[in-house]
Write a structure and sequence with these properties.
Elements: H1 10-16, H2 19-27, H3 51-61, H4 67-78, H5 84-94, H6 101-106, H7 125-131, H8 133-142, H9 154-164, H10 167-190, H11 196-217, H12 225-232, H13 247-269, H14 271-276, H15 280-287, H16 294-301
The structure holds zinc ion (ZN).
Zinc ion binds near residues 115, 118 and 132.
Organism: Cannabis sativa (Hemp)
Protein name: Reverse transcriptase zinc-binding domain-containing protein
Pfam families: zf-RVT
Length: about 300
């Protein structure tokens, strides 16, 4: 192609390509607007690539989910005020990705496919989290209204629940589901005996711990987000904020500063200063520090 003229190079194309390919190249329209080419992601209205748009494209291309039907459900799910790990769990189970025994057996993993709570039915997500007698005991204690009694899939059940439960009930349901799966894992991997009281206790404790952590992180007037981030995770600092030095480096710098001041004072005042102040402790601690070459430091300062 002749870049300067924005047209095909007939000579090159005729020599290099066969007739069929030449024909295909001639059919490619060339712009006459004189603009430079830019990258454009066609799956986004603004042409900007995003993981979200790529994910939607993939899901639609493979027919995994009908996005039009379930948009409300996903919005309600992601808006739930519960710990991120619980949201992640709910997303996995709603997307049929939870590794239940039934799903593993379906994928040719050699496992017993029966429910670890009752051993009376295949362990599907709907069974182990909702329909199992043990799960029903937990739901009675959680006091979440019953929904979708004829649902055949967890996602249908959960979708109806999220559309009917109020905010508090939705949170209780989310935490109960997560706790049920946690206790189920304890039954499978640690051979504990399940108890519905334990499920409710785990659900409540986790939610209460998370709420306390959230209160700690709510900014009070005059407190910046950066400060809160540092409190939550020591070592995190934004690029424009002050540099946070480790304590041992600060100690070293402080001692060097004191030493330099004292040496300079000593030079200015002669013996007058040392008569009044005992310098032996400061000098000896610096000199005996294996990480500091006090002699070199002093010679450069002098
Ligand atoms: Zn069961």
């Amino acid at each position: 192609m002749q870049i300067d003229k924005l047209e095909w190079d007939h000579e090159v194309i005729s020599e290099v390509l066969n007739d069929r390919d030449q024909e295909l190249v001639w059919r490619i329209p060339l712009t006459t607007a004189g603009r430079e080419d830019v990258w454009y992601w066609v799956k986004d209205s603004k042409g900007m690539f995003s993981v979200k748009s790529a994910y939607r494209h993939q899901q639609q291309a493979h027919g995994h989910i009908n996005l039009n039907v379930s948009t409300d459900m996903w919005k309600r799910l992601w808006n739930l005020k519960v710990p991120p790990k619980v949201l992640n769990f709910l997303w996995r189970v709603s997307a049929n990705c939870l590794p239940t025994r039934f799903l593993l057996a379906l994928r040719h993993v050699q496992v017993d496919s029966l429910c670890p709570f009752c051993s009376a039915a295949p362990e599907t997500a709907l069974h182990v989290l909702v329909r199992c007698n043990f799960a029903k005991l937990c739901w009675q204690q959680a006091k979440v209204p019953i929904v979708a009694p004829s649902a055949m899939l967890f996602r249908s059940w959960f979708e109806e629940g999220l559309s009917k439960w109020n905010e508090v009930e939705s949170i209780e349901a989310a935490m109960t589901l997560w706790a049920l799966w946690k206790v189920r894992n304890d039954v499978v991997w640690n051979s504990i005996s399940p108890s519905s009281e334990e499920v409710i206790h785990v659900a409540k404790m986790n939610y209460s711990d998370w709420c306390k952590a959230q209160q700690f992180l709510v900014p009070s007037p005059g407190t910046t987000t950066t400060e809160l981030l540092r409190l939550a995770s020591p070592g995190i600092s934004d690029e424009q904020g002050p540099v946070v030095l480790p304590q041992n480096v600060l100690d070293l710098l402080l001692r060097l500063l004191v030493h330099v001041l004292l040496v300079e004072s000593h030079q200015c005042l002669g013996d007058a200063l040392t008569n009044g102040v005992d310098l032996r402790g400061v000098t000896s601690s610096l000199d005996t520090d294996p990480h500091v070459h006090a002699g070199e430091t002093l010679s450069t300062q002098q």
